[in-house]
Design a protein that fits this description.
Blueprint lengths: L1 E3 L5 E7 L19 E7 L5 E8 L3 E7 L4 E8 L4 E7 L9 E8 L2 E7 L5 E8 L2 E3 L5
Antiparallel strand pairs: 1-2, 2-3, 3-4, 4-5, 5-6, 6-7, 7-8, 8-9, 9-10, 10-11
């Protein structure tokens, strides 16, 4: 189901997702990590800007986007029973690179900070409630 505004722009999609419009264009070679069903939010000109969906690969997702790519994502993965939160760098010149990622899995978790090249700069691991200190630099 697609809800349009008075000018005919996509504003809300409910159901199966389509290839998104990004900055006024529908990319020819866009790839999602799986088919999904959910709610997609569009801005005033019809560009996809986020949503909530369940994917065919067993992952649930809530995301909000920069105009050209992902910005914030929260994921639950049925296959490995984990939950992840990530925040992408805002600078478009850096591209699709996480600033940090936090994951909870089993009785522990991980928090990692990345540099603009995507290289991990520091990581904290928690296992059974014990914190592993990041290595000295």
């Amino acid at each position: 189901m697609l809800f349009l505004d008075e000018q005919g722009h996509d504003r809300l999609t409910v159901g199966q997702s389509f290839t998104p419009q990004i900055e006024g264009k529908v990319p020819a070679n866009f790839h999602r990590i799986g088919d999904s069903v959910g709610v997609i939010i569009h801005n005033t000109v019809g560009d996809e800007r986020g949503g909530m969906a369940w994917l065919s690969n067993g992952r649930g997702a809530i995301s909000f986007d920069y105009p050209d790519r992902d910005a914030i994502g929260m994921f639950v993965d049925d296959k490995n029973r984990s939950a992840t939160f990530l925040l992408e760098y805002a600078d478009a010149a850096i591209g699709d690179v996480s600033l940090f990622e936090m994951t909870a899995k089993g009785r522990g978790g991980r928090f990692t900070l990345f540099d603009p090249a995507g290289k991990p700069k520091t990581t904290w691991d928690v296992a059974e409630g014990a914190l592993s200190s990041p290595p000295s630099r």
